Amino acid sequence: MNTSRLGCLTPSGLLAAGLTIIVVVVITLLQGGVLFNPGDLNAKAGDPLGGYTSHADFGNRCRLCHAPFWDAAGMSGRCEACHTSIAAQMSDPETLHGALFAQSPALACRDCHPEHRGPTAPLTEMKNGQFPHEKLGFSLTGHQVNQNGLPFTCQDCHGADITTFDQAICQTCHQQVNAAFTVEHVLTFGNDCLACHDGRDTYGDDFDHNRFAFQLTGKHAGLPCSACHAGARTVADLRAAPVDCYSCHAGDDPHEGRFGSDCATCHSPEGWSPALFDHNLTAFKLEGKHAEVKCESCHINNVFKGTPTDCYSCHAQDDAHQGRFGTDCATCHTPNSWQEVTFDHNLTQFPLTGAHVGLECTRCHVNNVFSGLSTACESCHAEPAFHAGLFVGTSCSTCHNTSAWRPATFNGPHTFPLAHGGATSCATCHPNTLTQYTCYGCHEHDPAKIRSKHLEEGITNFTNCVSCHPTGQEHEGGGGGGGDD
Q: Residue 414, exposed/middle/buried by CB under 10 A (0-12, 13-18, 19+)?
């Protein structure tokens, strides 16, 4: 026996091999290739691609999916040639397929999309692994283990078909955890769970409202979400909730809008009372005694808007002047006290100067009469007796000023010292009127001696003494004056 030759290469062996190949090819051709077909293709219709609506439409054209061994692109390349939108995702890690291939570059299409399992078999099958579920808009962060403490499987939520999801499963599962809350939650926010929930509990139990512009403090902290987010069905609805007080509390406004709609001007989330309104931010600041007054003293029956700010509207009954000095109380008074008078008399037609400055108002304004008073001196200062009626009709200011009665400044054409000869009043020399005077009233005690003396000096006029004695001094005359006896 020759052992140097392989048995299969003998003429008989080669003949047997050739016949076998011919038989297999003939059977395959006669049976449509069923010998190499592991099963029927999926027949579920989808959007048309290249003239086909399902893989079953390929018939026996296996080459549409199965590339020859010398094609470097392989079967996945045939898939991408048809499913161009998926091929575009491969280069974008932000997409589902791009993320899948970014974390598993060796992943082939058939690893997730098996075929030849029958016309109704699912075309997507995910094994438990690192599937980027968040790319579908729902993270599995909050769904690591189920209620029994076991890891979630795809079938727990998706059943037999990974490509479908019924949101009723959310309610079914969560009712087992907390039935009362789930029922109330669905009634309040609807049953479209995915409209608000993303699997990360962004709006779940761990939601922190204080990270947003509207923080929950005071009375707001204990309110249910539906109190402010009534009728919300989506995240957009939740974010659209108004943040101003009046949108929620218009029905609680006892002022009925008369004080505006910015409740925070007076109130805080701690409660409606006490109110913290800062009146100094208004046109009427509360100063002095006003700061101690209760709100209702001025804002009767909770009327705030249009409340008058002039003094007289509130203090007419307190007016001791009974309107005689007008209605602008602030001209004289301040909010500190009625007795704190700040009236500037110098702004009137009768400025206060000299001794008038220190006088009490009532010295001139008797019985609180202010309007219509005379500004003449004699209205307050009766003529003294020593004037003897000589100055009737003459203004006091002709001789006197407001600093003091004396010294008086009147002298006019008077050449005599006012205290001449010990005179105590004008009447000493002017017994009747200022235009008449007599020297004899003092000097007639020895008229013979005066006459004799003047005759010796050659003076014959004894009636006009001032012609020789203009200042009342002796020997001032020029002598020899004539005149009547």
A: middle
* Of the listed ranges 33-47, 81-95, 309-323, 332-346, the one predicted with least confidence: 33-47
Q: Which long-range contacts (CB under 8 A, 24 or more apart) does 276-282 make?
A: none
**In sequence order, what DSSP letters do the residues of 259-315 get, joined into one string?**
T-S-GGGT-BTTBS-S----GGGSSS---GGGGGS-HHHHSGGG--TT---SHHHHH
**Which residue's entry shows tokens 């200022």?**
434
What local confidence, expressed as pLDDT, does residue 482 receive?
36
In this predicted structure, the answer to whether residue 348 has a pLDDT above a threshold of 90 is no
What is the percent of the chain where pLDDT is above 90? 18
DSSP code of residue 352: -
* CB 33, CB 65: distance < 8 Å: no
The token pair at 309 is: 């700010």
Give the pLDDT mean for 112-118.
90
**Mean pLDDT calculated for residue range 196-225:** 86
Contact 140, 199 (CB under 8 A): yes
Mean pLDDT of 353-379: 86
CA count, 13 A, side-chain hemisphere, 214: 13
Residues 199, 137: Cα–Cα separation, whole Å? 9
What are the structure tokens assigned to 16, written together?
């047997």
Nearest to 439 by CA among 402, 473, 411, 412: 473
32: left (phi over 0), alpha (psi -120 to 50) or beta: left
Query: What are the DSSP calls for 216-228, one per residue?
Result: --GGGGG--GGGT
CA 253 centroid distance within chain? 19
State the CB neighbour count (10 A cutoff) for residue 410.
Answer: 13
pLDDT of residue 444: 64
For the segment 411-436, what is each residue's pLDDT rounded down to a tens digit? 656 777 767 777 777 777 777 777 67
Contact 429, 466 (CB under 8 A): no
Element (H, E) at 341: strand 337-341
Closest CA to 280 of 269, 290, 294: 290
d(CA 352, CA 450): 53
Position 33 pLDDT exceeds 60? no
Least confident of 11-25, 45-59, 391-405: 11-25
Average pLDDT of the chain to the nearest whole number: 82
Cβ(37)–Cβ(29) under 8 Å?
no
Q: How far apart are CA 313 and CA 305, in angstroms?
A: 15
DSSP 93-134: TTSHHHHHHHH-TT--HHHHS--SS-TTS-S--PPSS---GG
Tokens of 176: 């087992």
